[in-house]
Design a protein that fits this description.
Layout lengths: L16 E3 L2 E2 L11 H26 L2 H16 L7 E5 L5 E5 L5 E5 L21 E5 L5 E2 L5 E2 L22 E4 L4 E4 L14
Antiparallel strand pairs: 1-2, 3-4, 5-6, 7-8, 9-10
């Protein structure tokens, strides 16, 4: 089928011949028979090709199918009766699996004193008397009785607060006595310059 130009100025408005021997009124008698119909057919073929291409592109999309699949998966999950203390997660391969709810354990180690005690200087460190332990969750921390504590191998968040009174400058540090590593706090890590505390 010829690919004729789509231009209303190229051809007259009236069709001068519908089929061989069937003439219509008007039209340009200098034009070959059926040229307008050929142009219309060409344009129709062009539009059909465009629609076919768009249809193929739309059919290639899987968004709707994926949404339906996900929706179906969520519906199935919503109807599940899960095991207590489990949640749905993925493993390292990306496979959906049941995971155990993690237990968050906290240990608070404190230095309880009945009166003021200890004197510091600008060159030494005062070891705090860790003599009280409060824990939640699974017990994991052991007080050793010498102001040190032991932890099993693992990763921990350690937060140290070392208050002092009647001091001008105050520092604190946490010592990893196993590996001889010291974690030093700021130069003004919570100190009080007044004896009266409330």
């Amino acid at each position: 089928m010829p690919d004729l130009p789509e231009n209303s100025a190229t051809y007259p408005a009236a069709v001068r011949q519908i089929d061989s021997g069937e003439f219509a009124v008007g039209g340009d008698t200098t034009k070959p028979p059926n040229e307008q119909l050929l142009a219309l057919a060409s344009r129709t073929a062009f539009l059909k090709a465009q629609v076919d291409a768009l249809t193929a592109a739309i059919n290639g999309l899987t968004i709707g199918e994926e949404v339906q699949a996900h929706s179906g998966t969520l519906d199935a999950i919503a109807l599940l009766n899960l095991i207590a203390d489990k949640f749905i997660g993925t493993n390292s391969a990306g496979t959906i699996t049941l995971k155990s709810v993690p237990t968050i354990s906290i240990a608070i180690l404190q230095d309880f004193k009945t009166a003021f005690g200890g004197q510091g200087n600008t060159t030494g460190w005062l070891k705090r008397d860790l003599n009280d332990k409060q824990e939640t969750g699974t017990s994991f921390c052991t007080l050793n009785g010498d102001s040190t504590f032991s932890l099993p191998a693992g990763s921990y968040l350690v937060w140290a607060r070392v208050p002092g009174t009647m001091v001008d400058k105050h520092q604190c540090r946490v010592a990893n006595t196993t590996d001889t590593i010291y974690y030093k706090g700021s130069s003004t890590d919570l100190y009080f310059s007044s004896e009266a505390l409330s």
